[in-house]
Amino acid sequence: MGLIQFESFFLIPKSKNPKSKNPFLPLYMNFLAHLYLSGPPSEIMVGNFIADSVRTSMLERFSPDVRKGIGLHREIDTFTDNHPVVLQSKERLRVRYHKYAPVIVDVFYDHFLAVQWKEYSPIALSAWSRDTYSFLSGYLNLFPPRSLQFYGYMTGNDILTAYASTEGIRRVMRGMSHRASFNSGMETCVEELQEHYEAFNGEFTAFFPDLQSHCAQFLNSGFISS
Question: How many CB atoms are closer than 10 A to CB 52?
Fold first, then answer.
């Protein structure tokens, strides 16, 4: 998909909420971390991917493992949003990017996961990404409309590998800035990443093992979203 198509995904009515309920806007941007933390391909991964599009009233239509994945997604979000190291990363961006700082941190952390991928998986990121796209494609009949949009956006732009480069991040954030409620400047966030690269890298490295442990505990529990 070319750059014009890439950015057109975000050329939608503006919203005052960076995590708007607009059906064509991803509510989270750390696709790579969410999918990786689901473990091997399974219905848990499916639930994790579609979670932000699923209302409580819809849960009963899904299998226990899909519902567990939905719960995992919410656990990841809650744990991440409240972790003191992540809060440090957000504060570094807060003055310049205000309420969009959390969105940018999500993308930065996925960047470091992609860059350090060999430390987390024996499978090359490109191969893992292709396998993940292929696996999820077998469950498209379960996806709510918004999740189908996310899936098309993610696969069409190979988002799972795009974050490994600063140019990939720049394209994503340029698109996000088009639908911000004011001049967010998100398209310039790569400058912040480059200026504070070691600080963000150190924070990701300190945070991610904690998140992995939390997710492992959750997956070993008997919790199922209801």
Answer: 20
CA 118 to chain centroid, in Å, comes to: 19
pLDDT in tens, 119-138: 999 999 999 999 999 999 99
For residue 7, name the pLDDT band (cuts at 50, 70, 90).
very low
Backbone phi, then psi, for 178, in 5-degree steps? -65, -30
pLDDT digits (tens, 9 = 90+) for 43-52: 999 999 999 9
pLDDT at 69 over 50: yes
Contacts of 47 (CB under 8 A, 6+ apart): 54, 62, 65, 66, 67, 68, 69, 70, 71, 72, 73, 225
* Dihedral sign (CA 21, 161, 134, 204): negative
Contact present, 165 and 186 (Cβ < 8 Å) = no
Domain residue ranges of the chain, discontinuous segments joined by +: 3-10+25-220
- Per DSSP, helices labelled H in the chain are 3-8, 31-36, 43-50, 64-82, 84-97, 101-115, 125-137, 145-156, 159-162, 166-178, 189-195, 197-220
Calculate the CA 88 to chain-centre distance: 19
pTM recorded for the entire structure: 0.85
Q: How far apart are CA 98 and CA 66, in angstroms?
A: 34
The CA distance from 225 to 7, in Å, is: 34
Q: Are 32 and 126 in contact (CB under 8 A)?
A: no
